[in-house]
Please model this.
Amino acid sequence: MKTIHMHERQSLIRFETTDHLVLSGLLVTRDYEQEEDILDVPILLEIHGLLGHFLARGTPRLLPHALLERGFNSLSINTRLAYAGQINGQGIFDDVMFDLDAAVEFLTNEGFRNIFALGYSLGASMLVYWAANRIHTNLKGLILEGIHYSLPDSKRRQCAKYGSDPTYDELYERAKGALGDDPYRSENDETIVIYQAKGPNREPLNNEIYTYKTWWYMVGPEAYNAMSYKLIDRISLPMLMIRGAFDHLVESGEAEKLAGIARNAGNNNIRVKEIPNADHDCMENADIMLDEICGMFERYSDPYPPPDTT
Model:
């Protein structure tokens, strides 16, 4: 695809969710004289991964500006899981529904008419959960980068692989004992450290920190909304699933299994693509990733004017 060098306009925006949380985002568009000039051009709503935000390394930070070079706009948002929400107790996975509602409403109210959404890693699971529970007439398609078949299953395998302390099952029993019969409303939350959760020793990089509640709703065995295989058959939107060929977090075949479930439910607008020479972050091979994303824009957008190259 042709690369277009153009001036960009960046705007830091703030919007409020229905449960009164104020979130921030970065709106990146090509420069324009009349606002109407960009409203038909596809715009990508981008959702970060674990412990991320819109300035994190890799996809969250690099994709918006790379997309602009192809002539497309983006809004990258912070969710309540940004800035260590899983550590301070604010980042309850199920509540991300309100964040995505507010972001799509913001874009719709601004007048954008060709809206797509990309979730990166944890953000892909958030996006599946949201899309399975919402009517999304303003959305044209979903892009799921590094999508887990099931976040709880992935975490259980990872903990077993590296011999986490506590073990996955031990942590479940502790969380259940602390949170009681109503985990969401429990006042007995506390911060927990899982040693060797991501690697074979106790170096800080291999440990993870949650609260009981954020662990329960994101990766615990009853975190049903983080199990994409249970939800994806309710999504009728076109979907692009991309995975780095060397992804060390998502196993080969997870995206294909999810695509099979969705197709069996009647959704035939699904493409699965392995990005060569990339790990979990597909922007390690940016050109191929961008070709896939821009190709989806072209297939599923309503007609829009081509970028002005003058």
